[in-house]
Amino acid sequence: MSVNDIIKEYKTAFYAYDDKKCGELALQAVEVGMDPLDIVEKNLLVWTRDLTGKSFYAGMYEEKAATMKSEEAIMVSDIIMIAECLTASVSVLRPYLAKSARKVASPGTIIIGTVEGDVHDIGKTIVGSILGSAGFNVTDIGFDKSSKDFAMAAKLNKADILAVSCSMALARPVMTSILDDLKKFGIREKTKVIVGGQATYVDDPGRIGVDAHGADVSEALSKTEELVRVLKEQKK
Amino acid sequence: MVNQFSSQEVHGDYPAGFNVPNYHPVLTESEELWIEKANARIRERDKQGKMSARQRCGQSQWGPGPVDRVPMALPAQSHIIPRIFDSYLDNPPILTNRDLLKHPNLYFLAETIWRARFYCDWIYNSPVSFGEDILTKQFRLIDNGPPLAVEGFAKTKEDMEYFYDNVPDPAASGTWPIHLWLNKMRVKTLPELPSYGSACAGHIASAGFFMGIKEFLLAVRKNPELAILATKCVTKFINRKIDIMADVIGQQLNADGVGNMLYWCDGAGGFLTGAEFKLLFDEGYGASITHSAKKGYAPCIAFAGPVPSMELMCDHMGNLLGGGQVIGETPPYEDLWPVLHKYDNMYTEANSQNKTLLANDPEAAIRKDLGRLAALQAKTKLPRMMLEHAIDVLAPLPMVDLLIKLSFEIFTYPIKA
User: The pTM is what?
Assistant: First the structure.
């Protein structure tokens, strides 16, 4: 098969959420000489953005999504399937990426986790894997993590971004504690904080002082990229 | 904690001897005094209205009939009621849901005082347990809600078949006996108010606990037969809960023809597309609707779903339902209203959004939100709405009081049948 044919079939498999086939086609693509980084940047991420750019609903709904037919919008299951396809692809491509002539310059280092008192894991893990596929150096510290766990992980890993998941209303104060602990550790100005999850709101930056709110996977990705850009501007 | 079917082995944060049939902790003399006096206040207030709470709720749910005002309750949700003991002191609360789970007497006391304090028209049944600790392999006790399912029990077809053949008794397993005791006490100590028994969680959420949410949602897409089998398993378990709960709360049809209600909350219903909901319907909701009908109950199924899914659910279940309820942050009511009012036997529970309580100008935000609901209600042929406000745990007490005050102000008007 030609490169074009492989990519065409790969795209079809990706959009059909066929993770097994995605892994196979990722291998075929590098074997015919495609740059593994191009596969990620020019294909996988473009397809992911295209798919996750649809309105998202999952129990808590954006108003614009509410009037769509359910088949027209992206559901939690879709996001899980996209993450499965990305994982299958990237796990095949990883050794080739390591050997690639064109080295990947990671856009930034991210610590992601779910706050103490909350064991919601799915959304956080999916966002983490998609950020990882976008080239970020991601460390997932898991769920039920204290503000000190977040701050310590940020300091040890020299993180650019803390991505904080919170889906339990009573756990919201932990987000404020994270900001306090980042200050205590002297790294608040070096670390941007983005929050997401059912117990976070679009106006949380104004309300509790975080740097951004990601309503869904697509926003988490685009706003993280924006935060990194701002951080680099500030460092100049 | 690792668990399989029943949590006979778990200790620590639970009260002693909780997972036995007929679990019945004894109230102290001072606790009984609190309960008696709080309920006396509720009864006294109930007599002051033009209609009793039971009549008002009954006409709204089972009517249609005229009501003096829209019924209202501020749900005594398990993660919020500990606040009643610390008068909304700054965070974190002095007592948490975990403390109340360990001391069910306190839980009962807290919700009774809450009901008196916040002018509730019905006994909201906040599940102290969904039975998720019975369905899951690993769960964790948390401060702010019922036990949390960490890892599903059923990974294979064999696991499911074993469960199906050995469905545990919810009355003697996990934390459900505590939940059952609370229901008994609610009905026993305040029979005047309509009671809502909870056979929660619904079929989608339960199947999610059972397999793991991610695994279940993947199975719906990739291995529908397995997802259907999981649904069939949890339905058998849910139907057992329905039988037990129906006996506990009793139908209690009174002279007004008003009965109690049975809840199956299922926020996770919104995770499925319409086609996926249909796929699981016969082994899930469909089977339980038929089952509960034998007990004389029309279920109140609480699902927070997007409009298209809600429409499909309503169309699919049609006149079988006794109630269609919407809680939490929902799609715009303007879109939802026509869907929920297509069927004469449905009613809607609507609420003011959490965000209004946390807004910069809460009074304006609450007025706007409640005004929208009132305008919709005015257009509806049937008086089938009840206000069930979901409040954010961080909402300050004055904001909560403001919500109650404005609700009475805006929704006190005679509604004709």
Answer: 0.83
